[in-house]
Design a protein that fits this description.
This protein is mainly alpha-helical. It is built from eleven helices and no strands. The mean pLDDT is 89.
Length: 209
């Protein structure tokens, strides 16, 4: 199990280092690390370049989460004899590694995005019903409040709750809770800007082409 954990962590991290922001830079000529909030994720792409680039970055970052979970699940169910609890842990571990790879990619000096799009892909691949419910909650909350960050935190709350009530072991809940704390830390500046009224509102993104 220890060997499997190490392999899954490494593979997940490397998958996470594949960034949709690189595609946005290729097409727009803009380095997301040098504009907006300086993070290489879908939210900054949306706020800095417009919703079309935000969608592009999001789709790529979502896809890597989906691929990581589905491929690992295929291998674990068909080519290993791990228990249901062990499979659950390994799936959440690779999901966490993908998000950490996205947030702290080695080729960007460990300064990447904030993992929201990747979490969406991971969540949907783990449990599509709860995943889609969480995405819907994210969209509705963000639109109602006009702040994407609030929707992001709702997404994480649902992720943690689903891990607690669905998974056969408690460890996925602790893993998801840890990711929540990481997200809170990475969004701390957004929280401060929202408090003082300088955080860009969601509607500003739709004014960009």
């Amino acid at each position: 199990m220890l060997f499997a954990l190490i392999v899954v962590l490494i593979i997940g991290y490397l998958i996470g280092c594949i960034h949709g922001s690189n595609a946005a830079k290729l097409l727009s000529g803009v380095n997301l690390k040098e504009v907006g909030h300086g993070n290489a994720g879908a939210s900054n792409a949306t706020l800095s370049l417009g919703w079309k680039y935000g969608v592009l970055v999001a789709l790529i970052d979502i896809a890597k989460g989906v691929v990581a979970i589905l491929l690992l699940r295929l291998v674990l169910l068909n080519y290993t004899s791990f228990s249901e609890s062990e499979i659950s842990i390994l799936l959440f571990i690779i999901g966490a590694a993908v998000i950490l790879g996205h947030n702290f990619p080695i080729h960007m000096k460990f300064r990447g995005g904030k993992g929201t799009a990747s979490l969406i892909g991971i969540f949907i691949a783990l449990n599509w019903k709860f995943g889609l419910l969480a995405v819907l909650a994210l969209i509705i909350t963000s639109l109602l409040t006009n702040y994407l960050i609030i929707g992001v935190f709702i997404l994480y709350v649902i992720f943690c709750i689903s891990a607690l009530i669905i998974e056969p072991t408690i460890w996925p809940f602790f893993i998801s809770l840890t990711l929540f704390f990481v997200a809170f830390f990475l969004h701390f500046e957004n929280i401060n800007r929202m408090r003082v009224g300088t955080e860009p509102k969601l509607t500003a993104a739709f004014k960009k082409k």
